[in-house]
Write a structure and sequence with these properties.
Elements lengths: L6 H10 L3 H8 L4 H4 L5 E2 L7 E2 L7 E5 H6 L7 H4 L5 E4 L9 E4 L14 E4 L2 E2 L19 E6 L12 E6 L7 E9 L3 E11 L4 E12 L8 E13 L3 E15 L6 H6 L6 H5 L3 E16 L5 E18 L4 H4 L18 E18 L3 E19 L2 E2 L6 E2 L5 E23 L2 E18 L9 E19 L2 E12 L23 E13 L5 E13 L2 E7 L2 E6 L3 E12 L5 E14 L21 E10 L6 E9 L2 E2 L7 E2 L2 E11 L7 E9 L7 E4 L9 E3 L4 E9 L1
Parallel strand pairs: 6-9
Antiparallel strand pairs: 1-2, 3-8, 4-5, 6-7, 8-9, 10-11, 10-39, 11-12, 12-13, 13-14, 14-15, 15-16, 16-17, 17-18, 18-21, 19-20, 21-22, 22-23, 23-24, 24-25, 25-26, 26-29, 27-28, 29-30, 30-31, 31-32, 32-35, 33-34, 35-36, 36-39, 37-38
């Protein structure tokens, strides 16, 4: 057996291989099968299976083993820190969604996920208006998560930052799992799952997980119940898959801290949170069905039809001063058109959609074409977060009605994308997506004027890519695409002039994006290097213009530019040692002066973005499967809390230690133990920021040193 290279020699060889000519010379005699024996396969970007190495865009795969060692599989942020270009920040607050941005797109979001399309087994978790949630993602049942950065596929609409897709697979054997987790701050989880093939081509997987935590700060308690079912049938030419999931998640909201509060004691909770009993409840039920049929005798190779429907209920109690919640008592037309919406949000949403597509193959051409329809219907009400007055006044309870409207968003799209083999080593990708998003509001609370209205947005997004397979282990590519983001229904709710009606002046933001990349696989399957350079220029960037009294007004603030570089490295440099790294440099700035309440100038950084972020780990694998000890380091540069850059969350670097040990059987059978210690040095820092928060409560502190341990029994 060939002995491994010394570390110094291997590092020098890897650095030299970043130069195309050196790589070509070194790998000319290397068989392709050896270089790609362990290459991950993805479906995101082309909807058909392709190796990561063969895609003309930056895409990263997080496999099931990584998900299971990154934490208790509650948050996407546990594992996605390994993806270059992606910033996923755990706000330590189950009443708020994770903050997810891709190359700076989505950083402005103070609610939900913006700028990135979200999918679970092809079912959108992003609504037609562009807002999305990840709270129902079943990480324990995932085979892998695929992350595509940038709008370089015509198969997805209404986003600028790319796609995050969770993928499951049909079970191949009968298996049951029972797991228990415990950790800091009273955190605990119990989950159970079962999967098996059945007679007649049927298979089933079911899982349930219950999680509770006291939270790292006062008034941050939460619990989550998540259930998932996957029922499949496989015939000679057809496969049908049914997905069902439900979520129940009540959580307290500790809110952010001001600069003075954060500097004084980052473990405190602002008094307004407890005074108004800020909290949120979320419930969701969803069904999805996918039917795939394969053909052999014609150019049409397969067709797929996916359909889904769901219902979501959200109620959120906010800490808005009583004087701002109620301008008059009782409410009447005297406050029009600036009557506040109250301090309680009550949202009921029904949604559905379908996607139909076909795949054609000729000798040198593969074509994917299809059509999609999505619709959401929201009933949105607002109430005062208090009752009574004087000594009888009570806070933190649902009071008088202040808002009552029905919102609808509908999108209709057609798309096509072709892959053309121009030569043995040269492949081109061409595609386009054309769509329309229609949004409307019907106001039923008219004492402050009629806020009804309608907006339509149309777009055509072309994409193009060219990849040169210079050697069996070196792939160079260039891609270009156009991104489109419509305003969400919430962003259209209020006009900047205070008048009643939809925000008719708010336009969709459009971007032009370019990417150059190198993908190199070393002389053995244990080394993979991906490098991407990108540039995105955006017109009509959407940002917060003002935020007072519960009314967030959004506007277009002109041109922005995002440019940077990403490096992904995976290297098993001996039988026992492995290194992984994800490095990102990002320059995200405004190019025009604008006034979001106070003046801001061109050259200011986009709030919620950081110029540098990194993840590095060093892992040791013991004899036998499922035995690992690893040291991780994660860091990022300082982050502006608002668009005028008046304050910043300081940069940081933190260490973590993880371990797993299989007591018996293979890595996925028998009893397995997991443990993590995060923030080993007990460093205090702001783990995320609430961008442009009107009360100055920008900072959401990360906890100090925390621990987690889990036991999983597979049988």
């Amino acid at each position: 057996m060939r002995r491994p290279l010394p570390v110094s020699t291997a590092v020098a060889a890897a650095a030299a291989c970043l130069l195309p000519l050196a790589c070509a010379a070194q790998t000319a005699a290397t068989p392709s099968s050896s270089a790609h024996a362990l290459e991950p396969v993805v479906v995101t970007g082309s909807r058909v299976e392709a190796r990561v190495f063969d895609t003309p865009y930056a895409i990263t795969v997080i496999d099931a083993a990584t998900l299971r060692t990154a934490g208790p599989m509650v948050h996407l942020s546990e594992a996605l820190t390994r993806v270059p270009g992606l910033l996923v920040q755990n706000r330590q607050n189950f009443a708020q969604d994770l903050q997810i941005s891709s190359r700076g797109f989505g950083a402005r979001s103070t609610f939900g996920v913006r700028g990135v399309r979200l999918y679970t087994d092809g079912i959108p978790a992003t609504m037609p208006d562009g807002s999305g949630q990840v709270s129902h993602f079943d990480l324990a049942g995932a085979q892998r998560i695929e992350v595509l950065r940038g709008p370089f596929s015509a198969l997805y609409g209404n986003s600028s930052g790319g796609v995050i897709a969770l993928v499951t697979a049909p079970p191949r054997e009968r298996r049951g799992v029972v797991a228990v987790d415990a950790g800091s701050d009273g955190s605990g989880q119990l989950r159970a799952g079962f999967e098996t093939p059945l007679d007649g081509g049927w298979n089933v997987r079911a899982g349930v997980a219950g999680y509770t935590t006291d939270g790292p700060r006062p008034h941050s308690e939460a619990r989550r119940m998540l259930g998932n079912l996957r029922l499949g049938w496989q015939g000679e030419r057809d496969s049908v898959t049914l997905h069902a999931n439900l979520l129940d998640q009540p959580a307290d909201d500790p809110l952010g801290l001001t600069r003075a509060q954060f500097d004084q004691n980052p473990d405190q909770t602002t008094p307004q949170a407890e005074a108004f009993d800020t909290r949120k409840t979320a419930e969701q039920q969803q069904l999805g069905l996918s039917w795939r049929r394969r053909f052999d005798a014609s150019a049409l190779k397969e067709t797929t039809l996916s359909a889904y429907l769901g219902h979501r209920e959200v109620t959120q109690w906010q800490a808005i001063p009583v004087s701002a919640q109620q301008s008059t008592e009782p409410p009447d037309a005297a406050c029009a058109p600036l009557c506040p919406p109250g301090g309680v949000i009550d949202l009921s949403r029904d949604y559905h959609g379908f996607d139909a597509r076909g795949v054609w193959r000729w000798q040198a051409v593969q074509l994917i074409a299809g059509a999609a329809h999505e619709r959401q219907q929201d009933t949105r009400r607002g109430y005062e977060n208090f009752t009574g007055s004087g000594p009888d006044q009570r806070l933190g309870v649902t009071g008088a009605l202040r808002r009552d409207e029905g919102n609808t968003a509908t999108s209709n799209d057609v798309y096509a994308q072709a892959e053309l083999t121009l030569a043995e080593t040269l492949v081109a990708t061409l595609g386009a997506r054309h769509g329309q998003v229609r949004m409307s509001s019907s106001d039923h609370y008219l004492v402050n004027g009629d806020d009804s209205g309608e907006r339509r947005f149309r777009y055509t997004n072309p994409v193009a890519g060219l990849q040169w397979r210079a050697t069996p282990t070196l792939n160079l590519y260039a891609s270009a695409g156009r991104g489109f983001e419509s305003p969400t229904l919430n962003e259209l709710a209020y006009r900047p002039d205070g008048a009643a009606g939809f925000n008719t002046s708010l336009q969709a933001q459009r971007s032009r994006q370019f990417e150059l990349g190198v993908k190199w696989r070393g002389p053995t399957p244990q080394l993979a290097v991906d490098v991407a350079l990108f540039r995105a220029t955006t017109d009509d960037e959407i940002a917060v213009r003002s935020n007072t009294g519960g009314r967030s007004v959004f506007g277009n603030v002109g041109r922005t530019r995002r440019q940077g570089a990403e490096l992904g490295l995976q290297w098993r440099w001996s039988a026992a040692w492995r290194t992984q790294a994800a490095l990102t440099w990002l320059d995200a700035t405004y190019r025009d002066d604008f006034v979001p309440g106070v003046p801001a100038q061109a050259g200011k950084r986009i709030a919620g973005t950081t110029p540098r972020s990194a993840f590095v780990d060093l892992a040791w694998h013991g004899a036998g499967p499922g035995r690992e000890v690893a040291l991780e380091w994660r860091g990022q540069g300082r982050m502006p809390v608002n668009d005028v850059n008046s304050d910043f969350a300081a940069g940081y670097g933190v260490w973590a230690l993880r371990a797993s040990y299989a007591l018996a059987g293979a890595a996925d059978k028998g009893v397995r133990l997991f443990a993590r210690i995060d923030n080993l040095a007990d460093r205090r820092y702001a783990g995320s920021v609430i961008v442009n928060e009107s009360n100055g409560r920008f900072f959401e502190p990360a906890p100090g040193r925390t621990w987690w341990a889990g036991l999983e029994w597979s049988l």
